[in-house]
Specification:
This protein is α+β, with helices and mostly antiparallel strands and 265 residues long. It has 2 domains: 151 residues, Fructose-1,6-Bisphosphatase, subunit A, domain 1 (Fructose-1,6-Bisphosphatase, Chain A, domain 1, 2-Layer Sandwich); 94 residues, D-Maltodextrin-Binding Protein, domain 2 (3-Layer(aba) Sandwich), CATH 3.40.190.80. It contains 7 helices and 16 strands. The strands form 5 sheets. Strands 3-4-5-6-7-8-9 form a 7-stranded mixed beta sheet, sandwiched between helices. The chain has a 3-stranded antiparallel beta sheet with strand order 12-16-14, with helices on one face. Strand 8 and strand 9 form a beta hairpin. Its EC number is 3.1.3.7.
Length: 265
């Protein structure tokens, strides 16, 4: 099966299914006494990261053999395909490996299609440990949906909200909170702070359960692309601290800091 990339609505069900397959592999490892090891950049990796990536890579090659794939574990080995002017995939097979190792459930599978304009066109985020596997899917200009478990094939629309009058619910990283974040929070009208891991933060804003997620440290592109696709499709935005929408395909595939937010106004 080969699907043209300019029809994300055709690709979307297959990508959701593919994410679920990767999630099933992850949960098989999760149920064991797995080990972790350190990559060259000192970040952790497990058998689940590598097994899930293998599933996703095989699926994407079958679906869209002419579209290059940038995937985290392949990139860690220096295996980066050349990108032309066309679309490409960004894959984080297990976002939140530290959460996975800590067994707190806050980890996700991220698959995103980046368009020729270097903006997210389609994104799927799957949380395989949350209530049997909750997934969020967003397509540029076509809205975002939440799927509650593998038997939910239609999903329900989700929409970001405007910040309530009594203040914002702000999501902060469990592992990457820093002094800059604290200083920024002190300038905001904050009703609640919620700690969360992985790309779940984007999805919580997309479904109107939170309002803001600030990040000041740099981060890899595969960590944000799928979540950004979901949030933007739900009416939110992901902008750099220079007020520029986050884009992709940069040298080194590294993002600057950013603010993910719901509706403005």
């Amino acid at each position: 099966m080969t699907v043209p990339s300019d029809h994300p609505e055709i690709l979307a069900p297959a990508i959701l299914t593919l994410a679920r397959k990767a999630g099933a592999v992850i949960m098989q490892v999760y149920a064991t006494a797995f080990d972790s090891r350190a990559k060259a950049d000192h970040s952790p990796v497990t058998d689940a990261d590598e097994a899930a990536e293998a599933v996703i890579l095989a699926g994407l090659r079958a679906l869209t053999p002419d579209i290059p794939v940038i995937a985290e574990e392949q990139a860690a080995r220096g295996r980066l395909p050349a990108l032309g002017p066309g679309p490409f995939w960004l894959v984080d097979p297990l976002d939140g490996t530290r959460e996975f190792i800590g067994r707190n459930g806050d980890f996700t599978v991220n698959i995103a299609l980046i368009g020729a304009d270097r903006r997210p066109q389609l994104g799927v985020v799957l949380a395989p440990a949350c209530d049997g596997g909750i997934a969020w899917l967003g397509m540029a200009g076509q809205g975002a949906r939440r799927y509650d478990g593998p038997d939910d094939i239609t999903g329900a629309p989700v929409r970001a909200r405007a910040v309530p009058a009594d203040g914002a619910t702000v999501l902060v990283s469990r592992n990457h909170r820093d002094a800059e974040t604290d200083a920024w929070l002190a300038t905001q009208h904050v009703a609640a702070e919620v700690t969360a891991g992985s790309s779940l933060k984007f999805c919580r804003i997309a479904e109107g359960a939170a309002d803001l997620y600030p990040r000041f440290a740099s981060i890899m592109e595969w960590d944000t692309a799928a979540g950004q696709a979901v949030l933007e499709a739900a009416g939110g935005a992901v902008i750099t601290w220079d007020d520029v929408p986050l884009s992709y395909g940069k040298p080194g595939f590294r993002n600057p800091g950013y603010l993910a937010r719901g509706l403005v106004g």
